[in-house]
Amino acid sequence: MSDLKKIKDEYLSKLNGKLNLLELNKIKSELFGKNGLVSSQFKKIGSIAESERKKFASDLNVIKDELQNLIEFKLDEIQNVEINKKLEKEKIDVTLPERNFVRGKIHPVSQTIDEISSIFSEIGFSIEEGPDVENEYNNFTALNTPDNHPARDMHDTFYLDEKKERLLRTHTSPVQIRTMLNDKPPFKIIAPGRTYRSDSDQTHSPMFHQVEGLHIDNGINMGHLKGCLNYFIKEFFEVKKIKMRFRPSHFPFTEPSAEVDIGYEMKNGKIIIGEGDQWLEILGCGMVHPNVLKNVKVDPTKFQGYAFGIGIDRLAMLKYGINDLRSFFDCDYRWLNHYGFDPLDVPTNYRGLSR
Ligand code: PHE
Ligand 1 centroid to 141 CA: how many Å? Predict the structure, then answer.
């Protein structure tokens, strides 16, 4: 019997027996490894007499293919057995009760920020952000707030160092400064965010939220400010008519300055915005002081405009009937479940601004 026939017969019978993966791999290397039986037959081809060489080579190739195919087949077979064994063991129990899952709610403050942002972006305001940790210059000095101003009092401001150079911003107005220092006029921005003052009672919390507005261009006047705020308040409270009044006030960074009240009344224990003869303060505003513009290298003889700062939490309380500001920040899951918003439930005046 020729060598080839011997190899073929021996290994066909081995391969047809019951094998595990280890045994199969051993056979594979005996045949096709570097010095394997089949591999060494190939090396022999050159030394075979020319008359027989062709036949030998072709027989060898046939045997090689046959053995290789059988090895592949066996490998598949062994792997299938393994998979089937695994599948047998890993049964899915469809009768198990489902796992508890909790659907999150959107916090009323986040919801309110979204609503405010979408209303203002519709009338051309872009949204800016600034850091909660500010320097004294942006928070006070650049905003025309001199050293001895009461707003700088330790009771109000959380300073972060002894020199009082770093602090938690007491309002969102420093974003005005950052925006104007970074760019050239015109500016038309709002800046929502967290603000901090050392104060805590039913209507004050040491951390609260404001949204700053700033519009600087040629010839912007107080009429524009009134129009803009009137539009915003109506849109926000979803009412057609609003009672709004400007009360003279003082902010170092605006001149003239005003506080804005909106009219309301109580009906059956519920607050109705836009009717009645009660007044509620919701924001501070005014025409940006020329000194502020000079501080940020904007020429006040060419550019003017208004700024406003709205208390976001206050607006959220009014719109959604929440009467203790501190509950916003208690992290009480039951409270959030009650006052929060379903992320999949799109409110009526939601304009699709992405969160
Ligand atoms: N920054 C002021 C405050 O926190 C509000 C405000 C902003 C007033 C812009 C006028 C203009 O009280």
Answer: 14
